[in-house]
Specification:
Blueprint lengths: L1 H10 L8 H24 L11 H26 L7 H33 L5 H5 L5
Helix pairs in contact: 1-2, 1-4, 2-3, 3-4
Length: 135
């Protein structure tokens, strides 16, 4: 949802006059599409059919890449906002897009942390932590 807000707000301005917003649009649209595809894969449980693919590692790499690229998109978007713009509505939309890009960056960063824990197997539950072999 956050990525959708970023690219919808940017696309609703005169972004073609500023080359920096092309990068922001690319990052937000690309990761929004891939995130939706991964959501569909998990909702349909297709990852169980492709058991050869190390899904925790794939998700960790995807989330880490999204975090790094959203950092660049956030900085680019925030730096390109001009408060003295002659079009006030463009300023408001671009500032809101910067805010939502920051939130998306934080969300992907949190997903990276949890994906790393899942990949390393640090997220064990109470049942597996109670099993001991005393024999």
């Amino acid at each position: 949802v956050l990525g959708l807000l970023v690219w919808a707000l940017i696309a609703n301005t005169t972004y073609h006059l500023h080359a920096a917003y092309g990068w922001v649009l690319f990052v937000s649209i690309f990761f929004w599409i891939v995130t939706v595809l991964l959501l569909v894969i998990y909702l349909l449980q297709l990852q169980l059919k492709f058991y050869v693919i190390p899904w925790p590692l794939v998700l960790m790499i995807f989330n880490a890449t999204a975090t790094v690229l959203y950092i660049t998109a956030f900085v680019t978007c925030a730096a390109a906002v001009q408060p003295t713009s002659w079009r006030q509505w463009d300023y408001n939309r671009r500032a809101a897009a910067s805010f939502f890009a920051c939130l998306a960056m934080i969300a992907y960063g949190a997903s990276t942390f949890f994906s790393f824990r899942a990949w390393k197997g640090l997220g064990s539950n109470a049942a597996t932590s109670q099993v001991t072999d005393h024999a």
